[in-house]
Design a protein that fits this description.
Elements lengths: L9 H12 L3 H14 L4 E7 L5 E6 L39 H8 L1 E7 L6 E7 L2 E9 L4 E7 L6 H6 L3 H18 L4 E6 L7 E3 L5 H9 L1 H5 L1 E4 L5 H5 L2 E9 L12 E4 L2 E3 L2 H12 L10 E7 L4 E2 L10 E2 L2 H21 L8
Parallel strand pairs: 1-7, 11-13
Antiparallel strand pairs: 1-2, 2-6, 3-4, 3-6, 4-5, 7-8, 9-10, 10-13, 11-12, 14-15
Helix pairs in contact: 1-3, 2-5, 5-6, 9-10
This protein binds adenosine-5'-diphosphate and magnesium ion.
The site of magnesium ion (MG) has 5 residues, from α2.
Length: 350
């Protein structure tokens, strides 16, 4: 080791950056699904081969991509969603960084077929390492976008080796699609394994939240599900909570395998550990020992109060007055559970 400092090769930089965003096929899928929702799609169809390693294909009926934008589509930091840094404080789309497709194109073979309303035909182009390969070709197609990702991690053998089995990777994909479907009521989702005649998941666009929960998490969850009425009073609003909806299981719900809660903050699926701990703590006063509830909460927090830019996968977010907001929701949950507890005969586990 000479100890001298040298700049990294661009392709190395890009592969490292991509590896931070895409750890497994499910991360790529989530980014693309969010792009479809950002594009106002009402139907998102997903096709998966070998747990997403061989093939991940997302077809949506969103606004499509302008043919003239295709050459820079997979370049790093190219986006239609953010112009100046200040916009980040009021961002309403999932994306803003213009990094997802770029990253994916550095670690997989990407093909995009897309058509906007005003175009006569669809345009198809392939991408590698951020760059378009040749010129877009005219093809037949409907308004919307099909993104095909093949041979994920073909150039990062260590990442490939670290993956779970195709079956497990597929389950992670199904889980994320299911969770997004619950929080995107006007959007339909389907997911199919390549070669299977039957779909693994089908959520029609007009289904209610409860029906979505039933399809994704089963009838045991949905029949025991109750909606919480969350009043947004002035003091709550002052803390930055603009709206909240919650669906949680009642005290008759028993399950052996706990289902991680589905928390959404401004539409993003997040793991909010303080919220999980607080809500589980409350349930532990009511449920037989070892039983965990199913919890789905979707919060809208003043965009200026939320920092979505703390992690490349956006899995975690920070927001102001986190403690006050969680405490308020916890009290509400506590009251609700206490009221149903008094109106039933409770069998203790002892
Ligand atoms: P970001 O979402 O942060 O802007 P991406 O790399 O995910 O970055 O996408 C880059 C751009 O490609 C988006 O800003 C959007 O304009 C376009 N795009 C990607 N996927 C789709 C899609 N399914 N439908 C329409 N436009 C899309
Ligand atoms: Mg995006």
């Amino acid at each position: 080791m000479s100890g001298r400092i040298k700049p990294l090769d661009v392709s190395v930089v890009n592969k490292i950056a991509a590896g931070e965003i895409v750890i497994a096929p499910v991360n790529a899928l989530k980014e693309m699904m969010e792009n479809s929702i950002d594009a106002k799609a009402t139907m998102v169809d997903i096709l998966v081969k070998d747990g997403g390693i061989k093939l991940l294909q997302i077809t949506d009926n969103g606004c499509g991509i302008d043919k003239d934008d295709l050459p820079i589509l997979c370049e790093r930091f190219t986006t239609s969603k953010l112009e100046v840094f200040e916009d980040l404080s009021k961002i309403e789309t999932f994306g803003f960084r213009g990094e997802a497709l770029a990253s994916i194109s550095h670690i997989a073979r990407v093909t995009v077929t897309t058509k906007t309303e005003k175009d006569q035909c669809a345009w198809k182009a392939s991408f590698s390492e951020g760059k378009i390969l040749g010129q877009p070709k005219p093809v037949a197609g409907k308004t919307g976008t099909i993104i095909t990702v093949e041979d994920l991690f073909y150039n990062i053998p260590s990442r490939l080796k670290a993956l779970r089995s195709p079956g497990e990777e597929f389950n992670k994909i199904l889980d994320v699609i299911g969770r997004y479907s619950i929080n995107n009521n006007n959007v339909g989702f389907s997911c199919k394994k390549f070669g299977d005649s039957k779909v693994a998941l089908m959520i029609k666009a007009d289904l209610s939240t409860k029906d979505r929960v039933r399809i994704v998490f089963g009838a045991n969850v949905s029949t025991n599900l109750m909606e919480l009425n969350i009043d947004i009073t002035d003091d709550v609003q002052r803390n930055g909570l603009l709206s909240a909806s919650g669906f949680v299981t009642n005290l008759d719900f028993t399950n052996k395998k706990p289902i991680p809660p589905a928390f959404f903050i401004n539409g993003r699926l997040v793991s909010c550990d303080p919220m999980r701990r607080s809500f589980y703590q409350i349930y532990s006063n009511f449920l037989p020992k070892g039983n965990k509830p199913f919890i789905y909460f979707s919060l809208t927090i003043k965009p200026q109060n939320v920092d979505v830019n703390i992690h490349p996968t956006k899995r975690e977010v920070r927001f102001l007055n986190e403690e006050e907001i969680i405490d308020r929701l916890a009290i509400l949950l506590q009251d609700k559970l206490a009221s149903i507890d008094t109106s039933r005969t409770f069998k203790t586990a002892s």
